[in-house]
Specification:
Elements: E1 5-6, E2 8-12, H1 19-30, E3 37-40, H2 46-58, H3 66-76, H4 79-95, E4 98-100, E5 108-112, E6 115-120, H5 128-131, E7 134-139, E8 146-150, E9 153-157, E10 166-171, E11 177-182, E12 188-193, E13 201-203
Parallel strand pairs: 1-5, 2-3, 3-4, 6-7, 7-9
Antiparallel strand pairs: 2-10, 5-6, 8-9, 10-11, 11-12, 12-13
Length: 205
Amino acid sequence: MSMESQMRIGLIGPAEDATAELREAAEFLLGDAEVDQAIYLGQDETLRKMSREWARDLAQGDGRDFLSRAVKVATDGDPDAIEAFLEADQQIRRISRLRTLPPAPARAVEMIGDRIVLVVHDKKVLDEEDIANAAVIVYGQAKEAMLKQFGPRYFFTPGPLSGGRVGMLELDDEGRIVALTFEPSGMPVWREVLQGRGAKLTVAR
């Protein structure tokens, strides 16, 4: 749970052991999309497996700690090697912004601006008291990406990663929450400002 206010939250649906596709989605959200954190909405071990593989690839199989590798590159490396090392270190630091959900029936509570975002794998575990103060309920167990409004709050899911979508919530310049979906490669699909019953869906392509 993070009660620190954020500007941008990435959302990745269950990947069902598709580590390559999960890495592509994570690289987009943590890189080009510049999310404060990316939350994996599955309940399996795919994110942990992918994160370990990604970090190992970036370290190029070198088991030494960061300081030892930094000294080696600084003393023996050419400018290209130093630049590559710094880029890899930046990528490794990005991995630390990946999050998993707590085991059910627990849920994650996030803040975007001054609004509460409730995040779960299966929305069926929630009751009225759970959602009473939430502006957005994000969930992972779904067949496809979906955004629905019920009264003053929204339910949002990017759907399973196999559906070819990832999601994002961000705060726009006017302080409104915006829900977006993208292809894992970064191609925008749709965008909607969460501002009431009259909100309109904007297709981005």
